[in-house]
Amino acid sequence: MPNIITISRIILTPFIILILEYQTSKFFLAFFLFVFGALSDLFDGILARKNNNITYFGRLADPIADKIFTLSLLGYLVIKGILNLIPFTLLFVREFAITYFRLRHSSADPPIATIPLAKAKTAIEMVSIGIILLLFHFGLDKTGIIANLLVIIVLILSIVSGARYIIIYEGYLRKVEGRGKKMEA
């Protein structure tokens, strides 16, 4: 069930964007789907832990689903001229660099877990996107200053959490690789 919830987040993404783009009168449907998708990130993890149903697929798919969900919506907002391209691009690069790092070491034992700061960053990112969508819909941020400030806050949290991943896991991975070399000898 948690993996189905994770996949639903990916499936929802293009529908949200299509509704925002072509069915502006149905904004609240798109916003409801966005909130559902954002909350699904919380619930898939809770269900997986509660039911002891943490899978290899889930560990890989959940962060990818998060990136598809958030970056697609932020990218849409860049295309609409609401967000600046530069912070979005930096956020995009960070997200894929850390996701690549985690996927590359996905078979590590124990696996590279999501750090609390990254979880907080994702939550703040999703809340920020929700706020930006509301500001955009109601015309409350015509200059985009608030929207871009929110994205810059998310970018700062992303850079800090990305650095934290590297600091935490670099030493761990060296130890694991060192053990592997000793075993081969």
Through-space gap between termini = 44 Å
User: What share of the residues does DSSP label as strand, in percent?
Assistant: under 5%
Q: How many β-strand stretches?
A: 0
SSE succession = HHHHHH
Contiguous runs where pLDDT drops below 50 for at least 5 residues: none
**Rg (CA only):** 18 Å
User: What would the average pLDDT be, to the nearest integer?
Assistant: 86
Helix/sheet category: mainly alpha
Describe the structure.
By secondary structure, the chain is mostly helical. Helices cover 82% and strands 0% of the residues. Helix 4 packs parallel to helix 6. The longest helix has 40 residues. It is globular. It starts with a helix and ends with a helix.
Could you give a short description of this structure?
This protein is mainly α and 185 residues long. The protein is 82% helix and 0% strand.
Keywords for this entry:
single chain; 185 residues; mainly alpha; 6 helices; 82% helix
Question: What topology does this entry show?
Answer:
Elements: H1 2-22, H2 27-50, H3 56-79, H4 85-104, H5 116-138, H6 145-184
Helix pairs in contact: 1-2, 1-3, 2-5, 3-4, 3-5, 4-6, 5-6
